[in-house]
Amino acid sequence: MSDSPAHEADRHRQAWVLKAGQWSLVRDPVAGQETKFRGYEEAVKAAGYTVWTGAGEVYTVPLTLTVWSRSEEPSFLFDMEGAVQTQTVYAATLPDALTLLNQLAPTLQALAVTDQIAGAEPENMSILADVLDKLHDRRRGKDGRLIQK
Fold first, then answer.
1. Handedness of CA 95, 101, 106, 110 (dihedral sign)
2. Residue 93 in contact with residue 19, Cβ under 8 Å?
3. Comparing C-alpha atoms, which of 77, 81, 86 is closest to residue 18?
4. Are strands 86-91 and 14-19 parallel, antiparallel or unpaired?
5. What is the pLDDT of residues 104-142, one digit of tens each?
């Protein structure tokens, strides 16, 4: 057991960073800010990050992604928020961020589709059904039933 306060341990917290295709642990650049600010987002901003891109809305999809950027390495912060837990990883440079986005692409694609379905209004559901029918090469009769091939 340590005599140091909990925030002291947070200050030395480590995080994963992707640099030149290799993962390593570094001191979390946001950890030192969290004791000074109320919320995580404020701490991220205090560490010099601004929102770069994101996917999904909280409470409508099972996983959201927000990517933050700054000029200093690690330049990109990937905040992945699930229903129960949030994970943060970093990418050192833009090429590293693009590599990580490419690895996350299947998940992001599924998120985008889920996000659209979750946000669909009842009057748009027929359009969504038409898109799915087109994707699956299905045809429907005038009564709305599938026509067997």
1. negative
2. yes
3. 77
4. parallel
5. 888 878 877 777 777 766 666 677 777 777 777 888 788
